[in-house]
Amino acid sequence: MAALSLDDVKLYLRVDINDDDGLIQDLMDGSIKYLERMTGKASDTTDGVWKMAIKYLCSHWYENRDDTVAGRDAKVDHTIDSLITHISLCTDYADKAVSP
Questions:
Q1: Residue 8: CB atoms within 10 Å
Q2: Own/partner pairs for 25-34, CB < 8 Å, 24+ apart?
């Protein structure tokens, strides 16, 4: 399976302009770091579960950039919690090496 790309995430987000490419790339990078830190696992952007978790986080953060809208609940929901738990507990994923 091919590694997750900016175009893959843009397709998932339904973004067809290039104006937000920098932001979306930052969200991808942040998602990977967030997932690595939450799970203790090394990222694998070729794995389907990792790809889904990254895309889901990017979508959540992209759609909730402005948390000042009244009544909007920007909490990450059960889906991402389940993906994090799965990655954390699954022995198929390598532990992330601890850097000094």
A1: 17
A2: 27/57, 27/58, 27/61, 27/62, 28/4, 28/54, 28/58, 30/57, 30/61, 31/57, 31/58, 31/61
Counting Cα atoms < 13 Å in the Cβ hemisphere of 31 gives: 28
Return the domain boundaries, the chain: 6-64+74-89
Q: What is the pTM of this model?
A: 0.87
Name residues whose C-beta falls within 8 Å of residue 93's C-beta, 6 or more positions apart in sequence. 39, 41, 42, 44, 47, 50, 87
Cα torsion through 52, 88, 46, 75, rounded to 10: 30
pLDDT at residue 28 in the model = 97
The 10s digit of each residue's pLDDT in 59-89 is 999 988 876 555 555 567 789 999 999 999 9
- The structure tokens 């959540």 sit at 60
Please report the pLDDT score of residue 97 as a whole number: 78
